[in-house]
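A protein record pairs a chain with a discrete description of its three-dimensional fold. The following entry can be read in just this way.
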Amino acid sequence: MKKIYYTLSFIVTLTSIKVYSQQIKNYTYQDGLADNDVSSIVIDYYGNKWFGTYFGGISKFDNKNWNTYNTSNVGIPDNNIQTLVIDKNENLWAGSIPYGLFSFKNNQVQTYNSEIDIYNKGVGEIYKSKDNSLWFATSFDGILKFDGNKWVKFDTISALLNNEFFSITEDSVGNMWFGSNGNLLKFDGKKVVKYTTKEGLPSDDIRCLATDLDGKIWIGTSLGLSFFDGVKFTNYSISNGLSDNWINTIKIDKYNRKWVGTHNGGICILENQQWRYINTNQGLPSNSVHAIAFDNRNYVWVGTENGVSTFENFEATADITTLNTSDIFSIYPNPAQNFIQLKGSFLEGEIIIYNSIGNKILEKRITDSNEIIDISNFTSGMYTVSLIKEEKYETLKFIKE
């Protein structure tokens, strides 16, 4: 996906620390990665990991050895790789900006720019639909489709032709959804339905799309996250859970958790309406996350602007429940200057305080129902207090003046 960003400020609300126990392994250029700035990840039928990079071409990792494929050694047309997909015949397809599209197998490169006239236009995403057709989101030539035999260019449908497209997904009934820099489109094969901020989206700049296991469409924009249940949009931003509003990628794991890669806030994970976070504090090489993938060993692979991370996915946490905050604890005064007082009828467990960028400021065990904490050395700003008791947790915010 084309890298165009704006600087955004954010506040992090942390609700769980269980994910932080995962051991993170990082790989960079020094380990064999073609380039540290990773745009895309795809895992083939044999478990090999393929990484598209913005400046170094493509890397393959077989869990032991690294191989690089670029313009110099195998003659791919461009080292600026935006997107990767494996088709049903085990060909690796790659989209680049600005030099279009190619496929790759057994060190043989096949280009398609002359057939579909997208040279110097670029492909930002390739998506494999349920019928194994490939769909292409282009920068300046709309939406294309290849069913394995013929190419289809939707040049008679203006909505599919005129926009700069970034993302594609397919819903549970076969509708195709396309995200552009101007709107979200649903296409049933004949007609197009358009969605914008007028219908409830947080932004018309759609950066990424995903379909969850319940058939809901998740939309990442430059101003937050949204999901569409077929009737209405529900939005998330830094005010209700996200660590950053600019969304680069969304992936759904086998537990139906939503993994949201952000431009400047690491990964936000949504499960049962509770948020978890992984960022540089837990070991990621960068908080700018461009790609996420899951392998068949239940490991997560993350592509960032400073290398690749991998760690074991954590089990589903349906047993984790949320404490009733009003019954458990409260913070007084709020705003506060030198001290905060935690009061509750059953205030017992581990207290962790985070600042507005997710750094852990204080951690302690409490057993008293009337705990006083010295915050005189805290800088002014918003803080989050997390109370973890056995397998339950809750958070409250306070402001240090």
